[in-house]
C-alpha cells in the first residue's frame, strides 16, 4: 500500500467527470487500498479517486469513531436510486479543500446502488451523516466540490484563500 498525494482546489483536475469502472480486479483493489491508506493518513472520512488524480468512479469511506474499530466502505460506480424530499444540513469539509468548513443542505436519505470491494452489486439505504458523506463523495465523481453548493461570494473567498496558501507553499498552479 502507498500514500498518494491529494489534489487540492483550485485545480482543474477536480472538475473532471469520472469514468465508469469496467472491472473490479486486483489492480482496482490495490488502488482502493492506497486510497484508504491515503484517507486514513490525511486524516479524513471519505475520498474519491479523482482526489488523487484518477478519474474513475471509486469512493472509499470510514465513518467509525476513534474508539471504534476501523469500518472501511468501498463504493464503485455508485448511483442514487432515490433521494428523500426531507433535507438536512451538515457542516462539511473536504481533503481537497483543506481547513475550510461550511454548511451544506442535502437530502437526509438516499438509496444507492454500487459495486463493493469484490465487485458484487449492493443496494443500501443511507441516512443522516452517511447520506451526506456519500452525496459529497458522489459529487466529486461529477467534478463538483462542496463549495460549489455555497454562494458565489463564499466560494470565491475560500478559493482565494486556498490559492494564497498554495502560493505560500511555492506550489505551482496547473493551468
Ligand atoms: Zn471531498
Regions with little confidence, pLDDT below 50 for 5+ residues: none
Instruction: Describe the global form.
Output: globular
Give the fraction of residues assigned to helices. 25-40%
| Whole-number total of structural domains | 1
Can you tell me the CATH superfamily?
Peptide deformylase
Tally of strands: 7
Q: Please write the string of helix (H) and strand (E) elements.
A: HEEEEEEEHH
Mean pLDDT: 96
N- and C-termini, Cα separation: 30 Å
Secondary structure class reads alpha+beta
* Spatial extent as radius of gyration: 16 Å
- Please name the CATH topology: Peptide Deformylase
How can the largest sheet be summarized?
Answer: 5 strands, antiparallel
Strand order of the largest sheet: 1-2-3-6-7
Number of helices: 3
Structural description of this entry:
With 175 residues, the protein is of the alpha+beta class. The protein has one domain: Peptide deformylase (Peptide Deformylase, Alpha-Beta Complex). It has helices at 26-41, 128-141, 152-168; strands spanning 46-48, 58-61, 73-83, 87-94, 97-107, 109-115, 121-127. The protein has a 5-stranded antiparallel sheet. It binds zinc ion.
Amino acid at each position: 500500500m502507498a500514500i498518494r498525494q491529494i489534489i487540492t482546489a483550485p485545480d482543474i483536475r477536480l472538475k473532471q467527470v469520472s469514468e465508469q469502472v469496467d472491472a473490479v480486479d486486483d489492480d482496482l483493489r490495490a488502488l482502493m487500498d492506497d486510497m484508504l491508506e491515503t484517507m486514513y493518513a490525511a486524516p479524513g472520512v471519505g475520498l474519491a479517486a479523482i482526489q488523487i488524480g484518477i478519474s474513475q468512479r471509486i469512493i472509499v469511506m470510514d465513518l467509525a469513531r476513534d474508539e471504534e474499530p476501523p469500518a472501511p466502505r468501498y463504493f464503485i460506480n455508485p448511483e442514487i436510486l432515490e433521494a428523500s424530499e426531507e433535507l438536512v444540513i451538515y457542516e462539511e469539509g473536504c481533503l481537497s479543500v483543506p481547513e475550510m468548513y461550511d454548511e451544506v443542505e442535502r437530502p437526509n436519505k438516499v438509496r444507492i446502488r454500487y459495486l463493493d470491494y469484490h465487485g458484487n452489486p449492493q443496494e443500501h439505504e443511507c441516512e443522516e451523516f452517511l447520506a451526506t458523506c456519500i452525496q459529497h463523495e458522489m459529487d466529486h465523481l461529477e467534478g463538483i466540490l462542496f463549495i460549489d453548493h455555497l454562494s458565489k461570494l463564499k466560494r470565491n473567498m475560500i478559493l482565494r484563500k486556498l490559492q494564497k496558501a498554495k502560493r505560500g507553499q511555492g506550489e505551482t498552479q496547473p493551468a
